[in-house]
Design a protein that fits this description.
Shape: globular
Structural class: mainly alpha
Low-confidence stretches: none
Largest sheet: none
């Protein structure tokens, strides 16, 4: 019995890099997949601020921002619109990408912090499917960009103890987060 007790005191090995990658990819994919049918339910911009983002993106594409909103999310949306050929579709794709980055980052960071791929999967799936996060995806695109930065920051912080580069990247990501939204 004593042998069993001492064996159970040894922690499980941390998840392998491929397990972390799979968990993050699954969570990111689910985050995008649950948004696609909801965002593409109609051809119009979604949410309270949907048309604001369309107008602001078009004005950035014309070279003169409509308002003094000079946040990084808005600076990236014209490129997304160019890739998709449509501002509304580009903004919807951006919402899916931001949600995927947030959920994948949360999954990766949580798996690293806890040493459990299952805990990472649970945290990432919660971020991917949480009703509040779904609402942010449809209503407030800049805030969704901020949640993407938080997910990435969580993933970077989880490696900061063992990697000076991860710590530096986390500091830079914090600065990036400040430039995403007010």
């Amino acid at each position: 019995m004593a042998a069993n007790r001492s064996e159970s005191n040894h922690p499980a090995p941390p998840p392998a890099a491929w397990q972390l990658g799979v968990v993050a990819l699954v969570c990111a994919s689910v985050a995008a997949a649950v948004r696609i049918p909801l965002l593409w339910d109609d051809p119009w911009a979604s949410g309270y601020d949907g048309w604001y983002y369309v107008l602001q993106t078009r004005s950035w594409m014309d070279g003169s921002p409509l308002f003094a909103d000079r946040y990084l999310v808005l600076a990236g949306l014209p490129g997304q619109a160019g890739l998709t050929g449509d501002v509304v579709v580009g903004n919807k794709v951006a919402a899916c990408l931001f949600a995927g980055l947030g959920a994948g980052g949360m999954a990766l960071g949580s798996a690293r912090f806890t040493g459990s791929w299952a805990a990472g999967l649970a945290a990432g799936m919660w971020v991917a499917c949480a009703p509040g996060h779904l609402t942010v995806s449809f209503e407030f695109l800049k805030n969704e960009g901020g949640l993407a930065v938080l997910g990435i920051l969580w993933a970077l912080l989880s490696g900061a103890r063992s990697s000076p580069m991860a710590a530096l990247s986390a500091l830079m990501c914090t600065g990036l987060g400040l430039a995403v939204h007010k």
